[in-house]
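cron nightly-structures :: item 1 of 1
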Amino acid sequence: MRISTDFLVIGSGLAGLVFAIKAAKHGKVLLINKSSIDTTTTSYAQGGIAAVTYLPDSHDKHIKDTLSAGRFLNDEAMVRTVIHEGAARVKELVKWGVRFDKKKSGHFDLSREGGHTENRVLHWKDRTGHEIQRVLVEEAKKNKNITVLENHFAIDIITQHHLGVKVTRQTKDITCYGAYIFNKETSQILTVLSKQTIMATGGAGNVYLNTTNPAVATGDGIALVYRAKGKIRDMEFVQFHPTALYNPKDHPAFLITEALRGFGAILVNKKAHPFMDKYDKRGSLAPRDIVARAIDNEMKISGANHVFLDCTHLDAHKLITHFPHIYAKCISVGIDFTKDKIPVVPAAHYICGGISIDVNGQTSINHLYAAGECACSGMHGANRLASNSLLEAVVIADRAAKHAVIDIERLKFNEEIPDWDAEGTVLNEEMVLITQSLFEVQSIMANYVGIVRSDLRLKRALDRLAIIFKETEELYEKSILTDKICELRNIINVAYLIIKFAKNRKQSIGLHYNTDYKNNQNPS
């Protein structure tokens, strides 16, 4: 089956939906998601979206906080663009119907998170992402120019390679003509031709054993662009959220938002002693890389499986009012956070690297854009400032849509693209081969490429991964396609990129901490 569309949007989180809604004014949009339209990383975001709205805050303060958190490896021009345009994009979200919390005065009830010097985080209770997702899904569904295909999985970006042209990383003018899409319900493979395509596939947390990301976050967009010979950058910078609820039964790990620490909660060890002041003068509100390493160190010193987040000294009524979702979750596992300390542990949360893009979301491949967590604009540098991710996603998606529509009427479909060739493949009934390989990859990444790394660990990780990669590629070549084997391939690709980028950085900075280079750090 062949489908032609002006705009192909792969992913239905904040970035994908904003792009789709805006592009739909200029042509037909096909939006695909490998699960349901509202199952995205965006919908899991608790804390909020950082933007400058009131004095005494300012763009310069937000820029300074972002650069400091990113250890000044950020692209400063990108930081300035996103922050200066952020307030307008927030107003647009409000216009569409997003209900950010407000005070009785009518002003936004702004919170503060780690690394911020002012209260600037807009939120809706402790489920901001869920609220944004709800509104954008409603906006997209009522748009007659947007067709949504749920349970559809992107297999490959279509380029000259599929016309028999040899494409390498040195090839100039690689062009995207669309994508091959797998219908999970029928196992049919669609050939989707598009004039403009955007990757908005979200994160890659499931490269690790313990993550706050939903099961759909398997690094698909990054892997697809990498295999299409597109440029990838900054993959060594994987952010571990310092405070996921310690409950080994939970997959994904339940996030305890940083806003709780901004509200006054304190990190303490198993003896109930606060410890963050030993590591940073900002205490429990230090940037995430510092807090995650501090917790990791405290756990190693004590031999404990977790530390605690203590909110018992705070006003119980206000706590429950501001964080009802977290309260309900804690109660469900026997913890009343107004009386009990919350056991927390770091978990893989956000990848600062990804598909290299410019200020308009353009990738190194013609007619291919990227936005959201799968993209890397340079905004975050070596460590993302809390709540800057939703801000970056909405600004870049807006800019990408404005850029992608400029020449849409003159662009043509490439009708020479062949349909997917599945000849010679057989049904793979050995699901254990996939599940066991996935567990091995996640274990390798957790044990060797986590919060603290070393040259020896990275070498061992790469050696082990090479074996799994070879086995998986052999299985993929002979198997009838399934989403599970495609996800495994993508996870292996992303794991490889994280390791290779980590091996190439001969310093400890931000989220990349290598014990062989611990004395070679840039100041924060």
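cron nightly-structures :: done
The chain is about 35% helix and 15% strand.
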